[in-house]
Amino acid sequence: MANEQVKIYTVSQLTTLIKTTLENNLPGRLTVRGEISDWKLHSSGHCYFSLKDEGAVLQCVMWGSSFKKVKFKPESGLAVFATGNVDVYEPQGKYQFYVERMEPAGVGALQLAFEQMVKRLSAQGLFDEAHKKLLPKYPRRIGILTSESGAAIDDIRKSIFDRWPCVLCFYPVPVQGEGAAEKIASAIKDVNRRNDKLKLDILIVGRGGGSPEDLWAFNEEVLARAIYDSKIPIISAVGHEIDTTIADLAADARASTPTKAGVVAVPDAREVLEKLLAAESRLTGDIESVIELAEQRLQTICASAAFRNPILQVRNRQQQLDEMVGNLEELIGDMITDARERLNGYYEQVVRLEPRRLLGRKTVEVNELRSRANAAVSALLSRTRMQLTAQENRLEGLNPRAVLKRGYSITMLQQTGAVLKNAAQVQIGDTLVTELAENLIESKVIKK
Hints:
- By secondary structure, the chain is an alpha/beta fold.
- It folds into four domains: 96 residues, CATH 2.40.50.140; 144 residues, Succinyl-CoA synthetase domains (Rossmann fold), CATH 3.40.50; 94 residues; 35 residues, no CATH class.
- The chain is 48% helix and 19% strand.
- The chain contains 15 helices and 13 strands.
- α5 packs parallel to α8 and α13 runs antiparallel to α14.
- The model has no long low-confidence stretch (mean pLDDT 86).
């Protein structure tokens, strides 16, 4: 034993030996299940973490190029399946698991990524109903963002044209694959910038059915934010009825399939026409009712005494004026008589108190009183004359004969004195009396 020569290794040599042993005795690719702990995302884009279970901890590294392909957000405490290979990190003499692919344990990676994004964007208000814009009832111009090679464009176009006439503007975009979400988002922003010229009322964004991977572009945050920021109302029409995407949740309205996008975007022209016809019928009925009521009111007015015998109204006013004149004359006479009686009474009092020493002064007072009484009577007579003149002017304005002086005439039946309004009131042979401004003319009806 003492003569045996012991081989001595340097640290680097031993580390290389371990590395070679691992490479030669372990599978090239391994899938490991464990719980993530100490997750760290470096500014370089590389990830450093551990996978652990009840009995051990495995140091792991995931390069940035591989991490970009992970759809969900890894975090401490999450159970995952990690696929990669074991190798030795020689500068520190430790082995590490280099992860190339990662999926959550118990649920699909895409489903977990979807749930995580829904939770995060919902907390930020991107799905709030208060932010969603109303779709116009009768759009005239609609934009469509989808693939030019897919069936979605034909389905959307047909479903719209079957229901409503409008202008469609097609904007081709990729709907799956690397960078598709960014290109769709960029197209939405571009259309919004140019909408002063495009004048689009609605924007439809979508594609036909496919696998979750195919539809993933519509689950990207960049597209959700572009939809949220759009000033043009957006309808999301992605996949089949069972598919729900982030774009559906962020959009102002959702169509379960591209075919149903037309049903959501435009009304049925046939239903609109039926509503217009019904409204027309209601309006016609309302107008006819108003006209009928107006005709009834007109007939009632025409049948009134004022229209049957308009001169009677003037004569009644003349009679009322005569009565007013008589009443005023009587009132004035009474006032004058009363004033004279009071003057005489004052005079008699003065005569009875006729001491010569008071006569001169009382004579002056009597004269003043007499002058004031005369002035009051004159003022009263003047006001009365003005009132009579005003009434006379009003009466003259109501006098139909004043109209006759301007060249008009009134024709009446001689037998009844009724004023003629239409030919149905006379018969052949009837005698008519036509009143002019200065004369009366008699005539006979010889033809109707």
